[in-house]
Amino acid sequence: MSAETRWGIVGPGRIAENVVRDFPHVPGARVTAVGSRSLDRARDFADRHGVPTAYGSYAELVADPDVDVLYLATPHPQHHAVALQAIAAGKSLLVEKAFTATLAGSQEVVDAARAAGVFVMEAMWTRFQPAVVRLRELIADGAVGEVRSVQADLGVAREFDPADRLFAKELGGGALLDLGVYVVSFAQMLLGDPDTVRATGSTFPTGVDAEAALLLGWADGRSATLQTSLRNALPGQARVFGTTGWVDVLPRFHHPATIVLHRAGADPEEITLPAAGTGYSHEIGEVHEGVLAGRTESAVMPLADTLAVMRVLEEAAAQLGVSFTEAPPEA
Predict the structure, then answer these.
(1) What keywords sit in the KW lines (predicted)?
(2) How far, in Å, CA of 304 to CA of 41, rounded?
(3) What pTM does this model have?
(4) Domains of the chain
(5) Average pLDDT over residues 185-194
(6) Distance CA 235, CA 156 (A)
(7) Angle at the Cα of 226 from the Cα atoms of 207 and 122, rounded to 5 degrees
């Protein structure tokens, strides 16, 4: 078996610009093609990053027989259609968060992936950061006892611009799908799937959510208090509270370098574990290794967790009067 995975980039936007720079940190993972609805954009991206092939449509990239894995970095509502086409073509997928624009869309992609037996994973880089890996190890070892609650916030100040993707409903704008996905996924990673979701917040004139505060509840009394916003900046810190201590995940918690362990009766213990590259290398490596090993999903970011997070996001959005639809397939 070859020790190489050949990657195609679907959507050469801002996030793809960052992710592509981390491929050199994953030996054997190589970007061989990029696709955009604009051939000029694809060629520009390819020229700047040394990518051999550029396509002026997503369909051409999906059909490329020399691509094994697609990194899907288009706006959220476009993930669903492209992912289904890619799965039908036998491609493995790393799908940028949020996985899709709707829970139904996510379920359809997951069902298709499982039926086809191809590797598909949500690009939730947080779970693969070395500091977060260590956090999970500490919790599994009982360092803070039983985890009873989680706090997390993530927000940025953005001036309202109806022409910007972040504020466009048809492009899956709003705080929840872009930033809220991090706080919800972090809580779900540590506490499992919640039994109740309560949300309060506000919306922009375009009909997308501007800010949201979420209270997630579990039947046994555990809880998560989460905040996200496009109206104002938030520290980006998380705290994990157990029965015998707590852990601070220092800003910004979704790609932290440092956590601080507080045990009852002991001095705080600071643990610093920087990421390789800018931090995307770890999720790339997870897909690379999974595909080569013949796995169909990640044990760290399983598809069931993606569905659970999407369920919370959709329920929270609905309580704010916000709903989304998936984009139709590319013409």
Answers:
(1) Oxidoreductase
(2) 35
(3) 0.97
(4) 5-126+280-314 (3.40.50.720), 130-274 (3.30.360.10)
(5) 98
(6) 9
(7) 75
Q: Which residues pair with 214 in a beta bridge?
A: 199, 226
Of 253, 309, 320, residue with least CA distance to 99: 309
Cross-strand pairs, 209: 203
Dihedral sign of CA atoms 107, 217, 148, 241 in order: positive
The contacts of residue 71 (CB under 8 Å, 6+ apart) are: 7, 8, 9, 10, 16, 19, 93, 94, 96, 123
Rg of the chain, C-alpha, whole Å: 19
DSSP state of 250: P
Q: How far is CA 319 from the centre of its chain?
A: 22
- For residue 156, which of 212, 236, 96 has the smallest C-alpha distance? 236
- Nearest C-alpha neighbor of 92 from the set 116, 123, 68, 76: 68
- Evaluate whether 139 touches 226 at the Cβ level (below 8 Å): no
Q: Which band of pLDDT confidence, cut at 50, 70 and 90, is reported for residue 231?
A: very high
Would you call the peptide bond into 98 cis, given omega within 30 degrees of 0 as the criterion? Answer: yes
Strand partners for 29: 5
Residue 226: is it exposed, middle or buried by C-beta count within 10 angstroms (0-12/13-18/19+)?
A: buried
For 64, list phi and psi in degrees, rounded to 5: -65, 115
The Cα 137–Cα 145 span in angstroms is 12
Structure-token match 């195609």, residue found: 8
Q: What is the mean pLDDT of the chain?
A: 97
pLDDT (tens digit, 9 = 90+) per residue, 38-94? 999 999 999 999 999 999 999 999 999 999 999 999 999 999 999 999 999 999 999
Query: What digits encode the pLDDT tens for the residues 127-165?
Result: 999 999 999 999 999 999 999 999 999 999 999 999 999
DSSP state of 193: S
Flag whether pLDDT at 1 surpasses 50. no
